[in-house]
Amino acid sequence: MKNYSIILLAAALSSCASIRRHNEQRASCIEPDKLKEDVDYAYSKLQKMHPQLYWYISKQDLDHKFDSLKQTINQPLTPLQFYFKLQPVIADIREGHLSLRIPRKKFSKREIKTLENKKGLFSRFEYYVKDDHLYITENKDSIENIQPGTEVLSINTVPVSEYLKKYRALISSDGYNTTFQSYFLKDVFFNFYTAENGFKDTATIETLYKGQKNTYTLHRESKSRNDLDQDKQQEKRTPEKKVNDYVASSNSYNRNFKFLDKDSTTAYIKVKSFSRDYSDKFYKETFEKIKKAGSKYLIIDVRNNYGGSLYEINNLYSYLAPQPYVLIKPSQLTSRLTPLKTNYFRKSNAFQYAFKSLAYPTYVFAQTFSTYKKDGKVFYKMKADKPTKPNKDAFNGKVFVLINGGSFSASSIITAKLKYDQRAVLVGEETGGANDGTVAGFYSYQKLPHSRINLPIGLLLVQPNINFLHTKKGVAPDITITESMQDIIEKRDPQLEWVKQEIAKEKEHQ
């Protein structure tokens, strides 16, 4: 026990020292020559590992952008300042999965506990982004009686429009898609803001509502005992929470199923994220209910679904396919050694590191034989690129899929396949992810040598098994219906309502 206590104490002291070193490094300035070396390092790793680096930008143009960036680095910068210079160039590659990790301050366990015991400063609102304007669409706690539809003009006297312009340059969708940014930006705006400005206990915002300007001071209030009890209750994983993939932080489910009418004619499945967790059980139970009810229509809602597991979308497709199918084309890599560059020991504690060390030979063996060469190219073996049979409870009726600019990655893969196979009617707006695939799969986490910024690089070219359109844009809906801010505020759903009306019309003619 004494030795065990010494080990724990040593681990705690080491963790504290590590946090201190990280924060000191984050606050220190780095010489221009070293930052330029980081630029070269990042580009070199991208050229070696990224299987489709010049999909949306020519090598000549990208070379020019990196060279031009280095010419602007003529004074020492902190890692955060350097991030705001390098990330816009990474974003110009137009690969939505490709992004530097913003260098954040690290917190001790005590500091994290203190923050957890307080309410958020900005997260108690829901937001909507339109051009260079940020609006509040929901005030969860009725803070200062701020009304939905209120525009936030400034935060601590800095115009929000400046932040939006700055942060918009940091993100991109796949290709030349125009719908993704506003959805993603509203979700990550305050991630960027707090990384840049820190976690403050107060903030002064200037607002505009119905032509009238107001100024409010927001406070990071302490949670009540009731709030803390609710947090604990939300974290409990009941069987229902597991199957529907409950997310405690948002008090919502990743997966939901219900019938939209009394006679169960229309089934509705909402998937917020293809997380894979308990997905087999969810789809099995859901499609058994749909089959038993004899439903004729199915609505699948993947709006604001940023993607996730290929396994899950392949499983979902098996419940929609009328015949055997192949979901994706073979996934390309830059070399047979690429799968071994996935940072196997990343984020391992001492115990995990020891265990992984024992398992490492098996891992190397498995990864070595997971690739194959064909026509001079290297591919990775994936279950989703093999023929899959329809599930015995596969749905045979009419399928509608709701999509928008927040439908990204795996959401775009499955909707592109559904559209190509003419298995569903897509309703909404162009997806945020590309029609012809993306680069993701698994990642190699590269750390720039001087700034210590992390650069995760997707290693697999993942494309739906379709004839490519080469539009360099998202999956286009069959029926275009957009949603306004007022729709969101008043909780109207014009896209779902259109589908319901279309189903009602078809029923009348049956």
Automatic annotation (TrEMBL):
GO-annotated biological processes: proteolysis
Pfam families in the record: Peptidase_S41
Domain Tail specific protease: 236-482
Region annotation (Disordered) ranges: 219-244
Keyword Nucleotide-binding listed: no
GO molecular function terms listed in the Swiss-Prot or TrEMBL record: endopeptidase activity; serine-type peptidase activity
Gene3D superfamilies hit by this protein: 2-enoyl-CoA Hydratase, Chain A, domain 1
Signal peptide: none
Record key words, sorted: Hydrolase, Protease
Protein known as: Carboxy-terminal protease
Organism: Chryseobacterium carnipullorum
